[in-house]
Amino acid sequence: MAIDLGPLLGKKNPPLIGLDISTSGVKLVELSDLGKNEFRLERFASEPLPRGAVVDGNIENIEQVSEAVRRVWKKSGTRAKHVALGMPPAAVITKKIILPAGLSEDQLEVQVESEANQYIPFALDEVSLDFDVIGPAENAPDDVDVLIAATRKEKVEDRVAVAEAAGLKPMVMDIESYAARAALDRITAQLPKGGQGQIVGLFQIGAQVTHVSVLQDGQTIYEREQPFGGNQLTQDIVRAYGLSFEEAEAKKRANELPEGFERELLQPFMENAALEVTRAIQFFFTSTPYTHIDQIFLAGGCSIIPGLVELVAERTKISSTVVSPFKGMQLASNVREKQLRAEAPSYLVACGLAMRRFD
């Protein structure tokens, strides 16, 4: 489900980079298509953001964010200028509606707008609205399921402004959770029986929130956000060692913290993270008809903390793994494998955005 910001000009599938703007930083991915659903990772790069530049998915400082985008673009070595961007799920209202089959594009548009009025708490002229015909409606052969996505125009415009200020051309605006799902679909297809019928829980542990999605056969059956993320560990470091937030973040990333850090701060944080995952699963069971999850995938910067995935598996009694969106892809010669192994789980959204090139 992506808002197309303009037809892609020229040859089919010109290079398009996925650009993920989150609270903690900017991540870039460029893929190429080798045919037969095979991809090659051409480039990946990340650049941290100053604290407060992006808050709760809102871009608070366009200049700082576009500077970071400019740096990450340069660092990656790409020449591609077309970008796919993502909106945080909390900023987008999505609704599945049923409409008669056989409507023309114009008729669909009119119907979607009149339906959207019921679900969107803003005036339609303040909203970027898009829709996607998913397919025939269940038990109603003369109808189709249509997915509506709407977000405040200013939120789209802020992201467009950031990309343009960095000299890039925004072509696609996606929803981050949909981009993550597109990247995850490749991984679940590598499970036994192509993952068919399996219920999969995806936990993206970000800086401020953990985004929880439960999927079955590529469809999201449950979604929520929990206010838990890596910034809590950084705040603990700030308090324990009297550092600034930036110093604490840098030392955390570089593994330069005093002896005792693991026992006193890291271990309790990991226990908390495992507890958040367990709680989220309980919420899922109590608020849906489902009673089991077959596989847990962890993503996001925190997911690579040594021992966390084992702790989650132990607490939940569910097979758990850290997801690498690039698993099974070929790597271009300039891709640094060691760095990729360490950072891949935090590139799930950027990878899904980059895959929009091949839709």
TrEMBL record:
Domain of life: Bacteria
InterPro entries: ATPase_NBD, FtsA/MreB, Heat_shock_70_CS, PilM, SHS2_FtsA
Listed SMART domains: FtsA (SM00842)
GO terms for biological process, alphabetical: cell division
Domain named SHS2: residues: 16-184
Similarity comment: Belongs to the heat shock protein 70 family.
Name of this protein: Pilus assembly protein PilM
Species assigned in the record: Noviherbaspirillum saxi
Native organism taxonomy: Bacteria, Pseudomonadati, Pseudomonadota, Betaproteobacteria, Burkholderiales
